[in-house]
Design brief:
The protein has about 600 residues and is an all-alpha fold. Helices cover about 50% and strands about 0% of the residues. The termini are far apart.
Length: about 600
């Protein structure tokens, strides 16, 4: 068929098209023509307003999107509704109208919470019994060693110093005698009770000195004695390498110098090489040189065979980690871009950017480890591109991995069968948050990787699944809502009126272990208690404590943006004092009300 005739374009359009064609054909002439012309003022302002584009690896993540984040988990949790019987079986007009309703408003039900499932959650009495070691009767790193917080504790201390010292010495001697080989169990129980009583007496004595003395030297000496006692007990628990003993020690917090080895013992790993420990005064009456020697050689009292076994285990960890790093260099996974994007966002914070290379190396090695999927308490995700026989979770190590498929097969990896990623954990937004605080604890990447993998398998995987088990994210979210409703219902209702539900603020904290709120030192203090009690219920308790701490400020606000800004600042939050104040509040002293006479039956 003949082509239809097209009308010629107007003269203006034709001239514009000719100019454009001339620009394409003769770029040199166009450049010479524009070389002498000065840009207009408007064009200059536009060029000044344009942001400077920095070329780098972050540019390749512009078109990527996270698989999910904390808000997506919250929306999925809200969408879970329990089955309920029909409201009315009589067929009335109200019942028919009720059938056509959409989702119920948050205030229509009996509960105000967003979590509508009926899960077994602990109340305050259960939490107090579970975390009894957090009470003011026990030593706490972060409270008793603080120059301001230590002066505010017990108002009624035990009797003065001479009696307390004599009782402490007698109890220690009795405990040593009962712990001798062949001692009957009854004697051991009596000695343990005497040691606990002596500990309370010693603490009461120190607190008496702090509360009754304003001399800075007395306060400094008391805190120095507390620090020496904490390090002495920590070195003893590390030498024993006994998980219950390390757990009892870590309930009061770990000093930074002992935290790496105590954490590894709590996770069932060998303690690792002993770091250098400085000498602390007040311990045993020995010279400073002897104290320094004992502190720098924590493993000297261990059996030589035990030390050799620990060193071999650490060497095996290092060899496995090096094999994982070689696999990262040999094979690039489709999920590596998402992992690097998560790392880039975490590096925007001022605390962790010096450790970017170390974090990237450890996190990419984590994605190559099949043992994560095999040993995790819960399977977090379904693997992407699963093989015909599923992931090879039974492989022990990778060996010297290279690009060739034959060596990969010799190491237990088959690209035709294995899943992607090999760990079975998809890189979601915030995965790097579980690793970043460990950079302040471990300097060796292999030791850091082993601890990170063990913590994810035991704890963090539970924060990324929607299951009904007590330690999983839905139960923790419901525990937080119930605790806050019971402690401060006025604050809860006030935030709902401002259309800022408390769980929408607290769930990202619970999901990421408070890494996105607290300072690194306080994150580690909170994780001390998580590892010591082997319980994630302390996370919703601390979240409720933060809301109660901010309650006077939040009750005076009238805008939702003000609430969000106030709750996003966690620089002044301290873990140990807030947990003690929430779980074991000390009633304020005041005048007692006058006694009322008993009411008799004749008065009615």
């Amino acid at each position: 068929a003949p082509k239809p005739k097209v009308a010629p374009p107007p003269p203006q359009v034709a001239d514009a098209a000719a100019d454009a064609a001339g620009d394409e054909k003769e770029p040199g002439e166009k450049a010479e023509k524009d070389k002498g012309e000065k840009p207009d003022a408007d064009e200059k302002e536009k060029s000044d307003e344009q942001p400077i584009q920095v070329k780098g690896p972050k540019k390749k993540h512009e078109n990527l999107r996270y698989l999910y984040d904390s808000n997506d988990l919250l929306e999925a949790l809200i969408a879970v509704h329990p089955r309920q019987p029909p409201r009315d079986e009589r067929g009335s007009a109200d019942a028919k109208k009720e059938k056509g309703r959409g989702p119920l408003d948050i205030l229509d039900g009996d509960l105000w919470g967003l979590v509508r499932t009926n899960l077994p959650t602990p109340d305050l009495r259960v939490l107090r019994a579970r975390f009894a070691e957090l009470s003011p009767d026990h030593w706490q790193v972060g409270v008793d060693d603080h120059p301001l917080l230590a002066t505010t504790a017990p108002l009624q201390p035990l009797p003065p110093t001479p009696l307390a010292r004599a009782a402490a010495l007698a109890a220690v001697q009795a405990a040593a005698a009962a712990a001798s080989p062949g001692a009957p169990p009854a004697a051991v129980a009596v000695a343990s009770a005497a040691a606990a009583k002596a500990e309370a007496a010693a603490k009461s004595e120190m607190l008496t000195n702090l509360a009754t003395s304003s001399d800075p030297q007395v306060i400094a000496e008391t805190q120095e004695a507390f620090g020496a006692r904490v390090h002495r007990a920590g070195r003893k628990s590390v030498n024993e390498c006994f998980i219950p003993a390390a757990r009892a020690y870590a309930t009061g917090g770990c000093p930074p110098s002992l935290r790496p080895r105590v954490w590894r013992i709590l996770l069932g790993l060998p303690p690792g090489p002993p770091p250098f420990q400085p000498a602390f005064g007040g311990g045993g009456g020995g010279s400073s040189a002897n104290s320094s020697t004992r502190g720098s050689r924590d493993g000297a009292s261990l059996h030589p065979e035990q030390v050799e076994e620990d060193l071999e285990a650490v060497a095996a960890e290092e060899a496995r980690y090096e094999a994982l790093k070689q696999h990262v260099e040999a094979v690039e996974l489709v999920t590596d871009a998402l992992t690097c994007m998560d790392i880039d966002e975490m590096m925007d914070r001022g605390h962790y950017f010096p450790f970017e290379d170390k974090i990237q190396s450890v996190l990419l090695a984590f994605s190559r480890d099949p043992s994560v999927h095999a040993n995790a308490a819960f399977a977090v995700h379904r693997p992407l591109l699963p093989g015909k026989t599923g992931p090879s979770v039974g492989s022990v190590g990778f060996g010297a991995c290279a690009v060739s498929s034959s060596e990969l097969a010799a190491c237990g990896l088959d690209p035709a069968k294995d899943s992607v990623p090999l760990s079975g954990v998809m890189p979601f937004k915030g995965l790097v948050a579980y690793l970043a605080p460990l950079t302040f604890v471990f300097d060796d990447e292999a030791l850091m990787y082993s601890v990170f993998r063990a913590m994810f398998q035991r704890f963090w995987c539970k924060l990324n699944v929607l299951r009904s088990e007590p330690q999983c994210l839905p139960a923790l979210a419901q525990t937080f809502e119930e605790l806050l409703q019971a402690h401060d219902p006025h604050l809860f209702f006030k935030l709902i009126q401002l259309k800022v539900h408390p769980l929408r603020i607290a769930l990202p904290w619970l999901h990421l272990g408070f890494v996105n709120l607290l300072e690194p030192s306080e994150v580690l203090a909170l994780w001390d208690r998580v590892l010591a009690f082997d319980d994630l219920s302390i996370l919703p308790a601390f979240a409720a404590a933060v809301f109660l701490f901010r309650s006077p400020l939040l009750m005076a606000m009238h805008e939702s943006s003000e609430v969000s800004d106030a709750m996003a600042d966690g620089t002044e939050l301290r873990v140990a004092p807030l947990l003690q104040h929430f779980l074991f509040p000390i009633p304020a002293e005041g005048p007692r009300p006058p006694a009322q006479p008993p009411v008799s039956s004749d008065d009615h």
